[in-house]
Design a protein that fits this description.
alpha/beta; 52 strands; 23-stranded parallel sheet; 7-stranded antiparallel sheet
């Protein structure tokens, strides 16, 4: 009651203020005085409005995935929504209370995670922190990005504008969409505001411990116990001389090198002792066990240190604890990743009190200016100020005469002060990723400096004459500078330079013959056509990825040990390569070499030779006992190897001759006894037969054998049994009918891959003790004979593509413990099954772990997406993590389905799909990320002569290739720093540190990813979008991750699929080839076969004669499954069966959240509509009469059309509106004539009113629609989504559930599912029945929501009942529906998509609309 009175009083005062202020300028809120509902049923807490026009809506919220938060409709009243609509610069800031801060997590947030108190503050982009604090009577606001550090905002900063800027930088372009996203509480995982600074107990414990405890000094009993304040800070234990006061004398006990021990005679007592001959001891008795453990844990860390180091990095500190200044023995302080300030008691201005401080790390503190106060710390030897936005260095830097290391990387420096030259002891200076246009002359005076680090600057010319004056410089790093030339016009040799790094520049020629003592040169990824070096001391040369035709080195580099000349245009190797005496590693792959010199192959020093992807036709004979250990000759034209090859190369351990034309291989030895040490042999892609397999028996040490895609008809059983140490065997793509039973002799075998053969008997490998993976897919298996028990080591079994395989229940039970079991789903085909899309495209996919322990690649494949003439395919690569790729697999299809409803422009709906998916990763996406590629095939009517369009969007390194007329057409863009100069420049502008392996902050080589939000703005989620019109010349589409296309070129991938044709077998072959070519990482591929052309028409013949038909008959548009509830895997999620034995797909989908509507598709009478293909779509609906007898209506079909007002992606949670319970007149809802059980929330059609439009009119309207987006392609947008199964509506009753449990297509929904791999959904089995079965049932006993009474609705009536219904409804007057317009701007009157308001009590709310 007291709260209600206070609320009413505050509302009255707010009304008075509204009367006095007619207008509010600068975008501040003008609120309607009608809000007086202190006791209303709305969930909003009534609040008062102050003079600033800021309104606070208090809500204590809990989240369940991304759907549990209150919807926008329940957050805001009508006046708030009207105010928000008035200006896109108005919005809502989510303000969190002071509680435990959000911590990064590797997984999604669960429903049990309670969120802190959340207040929704309506304000404008001009509202400052000072105004918000004044209105809320708080001290300040705090900002947390990506669940990481928490920073206090300055009074002049504008929170809402910060959110808008963040979303704009992410990739949102539409101001209305930015306004909508800014009010989404899920955004808090990326940007979050606090009204008070949250306290992290763990961080506070490591920063400062204090309390009043019983203390005794000394080991003797002379001193008595006394209550004293005790502080553990930094490296010292501080004991006050007076209880509860710090005014008296402070006793300082240094702990580094000392001891902390438990006192067993007293409970919860610790003994602290310092080190050295003058050691002192204090006994501290703690009150509780928790205090005792906390102090013991922290003190033990301090005493174990070898130096007096205080590590306070990543603590969100603005100043250090004042007690730290009592630690006079501190020599090293690490304050990296904080927000340190100059002023304040613990600010940088007081750091000169650390008299013995030698090392200070202030990197990543956002200082903006150089802290001159640190120049007074005379003992300082190391100073780290990287990534602080510094634009200048003060002259006082010259005071640090003891300074030896100075790191200024990642700033905005363009010059250095002259006083810096006075630092005689400075030996390390970091100037990388600044704005220096040339090498500073001041470096000539720094005689102790031996390395110059200036990577990522703007030095375009390197003058070697200037280096003559810097005789102390031995190593120079000038990578990523945009270097265009190196001036070498000097006759005097440069003797001091030893190492030079010029990689990733724009050099076209390089002459370093004057650097006579150069030992290491990096010049890869330039545009070099010529290279001249001095060979006196040269040891290492990296010159790959250039345009070199030759390399001139004089004299012969006899010290050279490692040389990389790969990916150039070398047609021959220079003679000096063979003359080099110490060369051990030589990489000349991806060149144009036609032969390798016998002198090179017989080198007495060469141990590793990589010569793949050349034009070699023969291999010279070798000398005896050469030291060669690794030889890669893949992708050449070799027809044979020297007969004496193996018994002369006795040290050879790795040989890869895949993708050649070998018809035989040499014997391992001249006698029965072999001395071969070969361990890995790759023979994939040759013309070898079973006779060659018999020659392998001499390689007794063989561990890995790949003989895929040869001409093997059998494998000699006696020979296979002798390979006793074999661990991995790949015999895929041959003509084998069986794997010899002697494979059971290979006791160490853990991987057997034999897909794409004619094997009809399961190999006897399940009794091997170390077997982990068995792949016998795409064979002719009929049954599997199993032992009584399976080995516990078996992790993956692939049986897909065996059409005749029948598994018994006992077999499935034995397979239950396998973490990844891949089986074919047997779809149940109904009489109304539409085959329209199946004749247009079908797909196959493959994923292989390689030598990794987990699979981080996931696949999404939906042959029927949206309507039956659309499809969606995607591939996601998490690199080292599997969480993000699985979450994207489960949610991205639903996100796309929803975004298509909001916009018809390809660049908009695809971009928003990626950005929304990025947000929905939640806490999992803060530190983890994944490359993603999404392809959407849709009916394309904007391009003349084109039937379909293919829209591709991607981030990261996943790629898509289209085969057109037998040639590859790249559809994606690789966002890798090495392959995109534009992205490299953008990342450099963001002042990110790019490591030598071209990774952003040493984390990822990609500049765009979904997830990894802590790398923002260097790494963005905005995708590259491209739409390609499809034509009859387009044969198939290939999707692959980075590992696939690193080993398999676009042309080879296209040629491979052309030779196989079957999509599944083709995808398997691509992955197998990548592994045989040396890929050891996860590899994934999706092949989509396209059959687009006039001959692919699948329309049904006309049902009526011309006389009865009248105007052109209207057939219903194809019907498919709409995105379902996140808790049930929808057809767009790409899940055919469970991908984890511990976590089901529904659990992951629930945790990740779904953006699609929560309504489940419902079922109705089994009526088969006229089947129409996408090449000849049905004419648009028009003049819909009451029973479909008007012009343009089909006499045999009565269609119930939902209006645009009826359907939305924002329905109520229970799927019922106010008129739901009223039965439709003339239709018996529970009688003998007909039961209509259709949830119209899930039914959608392309609705238009008016007369039929000619193709010319359609083209004209499309042109006018697309005129607003000249660079984008607009697809024909459905106002709603159709939900059904295979083109027909099906009724599901409770009694059918038991039958569905027995069905192979639906058994995965009941009990144990069979696979944890990221498997592709088979759309025929993943239909409306499966989605509906997991929905809660209504209390009335019927499954779906009752029919809604709507004059615009139509019902689909079987032809047999059409006459009866016509007579019952004859008296009704026709109502013509109005036109439907797609809603592109955000609607504040309706809840957020995927979240549904409800007025019923919480316990009665379902997660679905059923």
């Amino acid at each position: 009651m007291k709260d209600e009175k206070n609320t009413a009083r505050s509302l009255q005062s707010a009304d008075a203020e509204r009367q006095n202020a007619a207008d509010v300028e600068d975008g501040r809120a003008t609120l309607n005085p009608a809000l007086r509902e202190a006791g209303s049923d709305r969930a909003l807490a009534p609040t008062a409005r102050t003079a600033t026009g800021i309104r606070v809506l208090k809500r204590n919220m809990k989240r369940n995935g991304s759907r549990g938060c209150v919807t926008r409709k329940t957050r805001f009243g009508s006046r708030e929504r009207d105010w928000l609509k008035g200006d896109a610069q108005r919005g809502c800031v989510c303000l969190y209370g002071a509680s435990e801060p959000q911590l990064p997590s590797s997984g999604p947030q669960t429903s049990s995670t309670a969120q802190p108190d959340l207040k929704l503050v309506l304000c404008s982009t001009n509202t400052t922190v000072e105004e918000l604090c004044a209105q809320r009577d708080i001290q300040g606001l705090y900002l947390q990005l990506h669940g990481d550090l928490i920073r206090r905002l300055d009074p002049s900063e504008r929170p809402l504008q910060m959110v808008y800027d963040y979303l704009t930088a992410m990739g949102y372009d539409d101001p209305l969409r930015v306004q909508q996203e800014a009010a989404n509480s899920d955004l808090s995982c990326m940007i979050r505001f606090y009204s008070e600074k949250p306290v992290n107990a763990d961080q506070q414990e490591r920063t400062l411990l204090k309390g009043v405890f019983s203390v005794r000094k000394g080991k003797t009993q002379l001193h008595k116990w006394a209550e004293r304040q005790v502080i553990l800070c930094g490296t010292s234990l501080i004991v006050a001389s007076v209880k509860d006061s710090l005014t008296g004398k402070m006793h300082i006990l240094p702990l580094v090198g000392g001891k902390v021990e438990e006192v067993k005679r007293r409970q919860h007592c610790l003994m602290f002792s310092s080190a050295g001959p003058q050691a002192q001891t204090y006994y501290v008795n703690f009150d509780t066990l928790a205090d005792y453990q906390r102090w013991h844990r922290q003190a033990s860390k301090v005493v174990s240190q070898t130096i007096s180091l205080v590590d306070l990095s990543c603590y969100s500190l603005e100043e250090v604890p004042e007690y730290l200044f009592y630690c006079q023995d501190v020599t090293h302080i690490n304050l990296r990743h904080n927000f340190m300030r100059l002023d304040g008691p613990g600010g940088l201005i007081n750091f000169n009190r650390f008299a013995q401080l030698k090392s200070l790390n202030l990197s990543h503190n956002g200082l903006g200016v150089f802290p001159e106060s640190v120049c007074e710390i005379q003992a300082l030897t190391e100073l780290y100020l990287s990534c602080n936005g510094l634009s200048s260095v003060p002259d006082r830097i010259g005071n640090l005469q003891s300074l030896q290391t100075l790191s200024l990387d990642g700033n905005r420096l363009g010059s250095l002060p002259e006083e810096l030259g006075n630092l005689a002891q400075l030996s390390s200076l970091g100037l990388s990723f600044n704005d220096f246009p040339h090498i500073p002359c001041i470096l000539e005076r720094l005689c102790a400096l031996d390395k110059l680090s200036m990577a990522g600057n703007r030095v375009e010319t390197l003058d070697l004459c200037g280096l003559l004056r810097m005789t102390h410089i031995k190593s120079i790093d000038l990578r990523l500078n945009g270097l265009r030339s190196v001036n070498s016009e000097t006759l005097e040799p440069i003797k001091h330079l030893i190492q030079l790094d010029l990689r990733d520049n724009q050099l076209t020629s390089l002459d370093l013959s004057s650097t006579c003592n150069l030992e290491t040169l990096h010049c890869q990824r330039n545009q070099l056509a010529s290279l001249t070096l001095s060979g006196f001391t040269l040891r290492t040369l990296h010159a790959n990825n250039n345009r070199l035709t030759t390399v001139n080195i004089y004299p012969v580099p006899n010290q050279l040990t490692h040389m990389d000349l790969s990916r150039n245009v070398l047609e021959y190797l220079p003679d000096w390569v063979c003359d080099s005496r110490k060369i051990e590693v030589l990489d000349v792959s991806h060149n144009l070499l036609s032969e390798l010199s016998a002198r090179l192959l017989s080198s007495l020093s060469l141990r590793k030779l990589l010569a793949g992807n050349n034009r070699l036709e023969r291999l010279s004979d070798l000398l005896d006992h050469i030291p060669l250990e690794i030889l890669d000759l893949q992708h050449n034209k070799l027809k044979e190897l020297p007969e004496s090859f193996f018994y002369k190369a006795l040290n050879l351990k790795y040989l890869n001759v895949s993708a050649n034309a070998l018809e035989t291989i040499p014997a391992s030895s001249q006698s029965e006894e072999s001395l071969s040490t070969l361990q890995e042999l790759y023979l994939t892609g040759n013309n070898l037969n079973e006779n060659c397999a018999a020659l392998l028996v001499g390689h007794q040490n063989l561990r890995v054998l790949h003989m895929a895609y040869n001409q093997l008809q059998s494998f000699p059983a006696s020979k296979l049994g002798k390979l006793e140490v074999l661990e991995e065997l790949n015999l895929s793509g041959n003509k084998l009918k069986a794997i010899p039973s002697t494979v059971s002799s290979c006791k160490r075998l853990h991987t057997l891959i034999a897909h794409s053969n004619h094997i009809n008997v399961f190999p006897e490998v399940l009794n091997l003790p170390e077997i982990k993976l068995v792949d016998v897919s795409c064979n002719e298996q009929t049954e599997i004979l199993l032992p009584d028990s399976l080995p516990s080591t078996l992790q993956e079994l692939d049986l897909t593509g065996n059409s005749s395989l029948m598994l018994e229940h006992r077999t499935l039970n034995l397979f239950s413990h396998i973490s990844t079991l891949k089986l074919d789903q047997k779809p149940a085909v109904t009489s109304g099954d539409s085959q329209g899309s199946s004749t247009l495209w079908d797909h196959g996919y493959a994923e292989m772990c390689g030598q990794r322990n987990k699979l981080c690649v996931s696949v999404l494949a939906v042959d029927r997406f949206g309507d039956s003439t659309e499809a969606a395919y995607g591939i996601f690569d998490g690199d080292r993590n599997e969480e993000v790729s699985r979450l994207l697999q489960c949610t991205m299809g639903d996100v796309l389905a929803e975004e298509i409803q909001h916009s018809g422009v390809d660049t908009i709906y695809m971009c928003n799909t990626f950005l929304t998916s990025h947000r929905k990763l939640g806490m999992a996406g803060q530190k983890l990320g994944a490359s993603a590629l999404l392809c959407y095939i849709h009916h394309e009517s904007s391009e003349p002569g084109s039937y379909f369009g293919l829209t591709v969007a991607n981030v990261g390194t996943c790629q898509a290739v289209l085969c057109r007329d037998g040639r590859p057409l790249a559809l994606s863009k690789v966002f890798s720093l090495e392959q995109s100069a534009e992205e490299m420049e953008r990342v450099k502008m963001a002042k990110a540190i790019i490591t030598e392996d071209n990774k952003v902050s040493g984390v990822t080589c990609c500049s765009r990813l979904l997830g990894c939000s802590y790398l923002f703005p260097c790494v963005l989620p905005k995708p590259w979008v491209h739409t390609e019109p499809l034509c009859s010349q387009d044969e198939f589409l290939i999707l692959g991750n980075k590992a696939l296309f690193q080993k398999v070129s676009y042309q080879e991938a296209v040629s491979t699929v052309l030779a196989v044709r079957d999509p599944r077998a083709a995808a398997k072959k691509l992955c197998t080839l990548a592994q045989s070519y040396g890929c050891r990482d996860n590899v994934g591929a999706v092949v989509v076969a396209l059959h687009i052309g006039e001959d692919s028409c699948t329309c049904d013949p006309p049902l009526l004669t011309a006389e009865a038909r009248g105007p052109p008959a209207q057939a219903p548009l194809p019907i498919t499954v709409s995105p379902g509830d996140p808790a049930t895997p929808s057809s767009s999620s790409g899940i055919a069966s469970e991908f984890n034995s511990e976590m089901s797909a529904s659990e992951v989908g629930s945790e990740a959240g779904s953006t699609a509507s929560d309504e489940h598709p419902s079922s109705g009478p089994t009526v088969r509509p006229e089947r129409r293909c996408s090449l000849h779509p049905a004419a648009p609906l028009c003049n819909a009469g009451p029973i479909g007898l008007g012009p343009g209506a089909h006499p045999a079909l009565f269609q119930r059309q939902p209006s645009s007002a009826t359907f939305s992606s924002n329905q109520s949670d229970n799927g019922l509106d106010s008129d739901d319970e009223a039965p439709l007149e003339g239709v018996i809802s529970n009688g003998s004539k007909l039961e209509v059980e259709v949830d119209i929330h899930c039914c959608a059609f392309q609705l238009r009113s008016g007369p039929p439009e000619s193709p010319k009119d359609l083209d004209g309207r499309r042109d006018s629609r697309g005129s607003d987006y000249p660079k984008s392609k607009m697809r024909r947008q459905n106002s709603v989504v159709v939900s059904a199964t295979n083109g027909c509506l099906l009724a599901v009753c409770g009694r059918e559930i038991s039958d569905l449990k027995k069905s192979p297509s639906t058994s995965s929904l009941f009990g144990k599912k069979l696979s944890n791999g990221s498997v592709v959904a088979l759309e025929d089995s993943h239909n409306i029945i499966e989605v509906a079965l997991e929905a809660p049932k209504k209390k009335s006993g019927y499954f779906a929501a009752p029919a809604q009474q709507d004059p615009e609705d139509q019902l689909i009536i079987p032809p047999s009942l059409e006459q009866d219904v016509r007579e019952q409804l004859r008296g009704q007057s026709p109502v013509v529906p109005g036109p439907l317009h797609p809603s592109t701007p955000p609607n504040w009157d309706q809840p957020h998509p995927g979240v549904h308001p409800t007025t019923v009590p919480q316990q009665d709310v379902y997660d679905t609309a059923l």
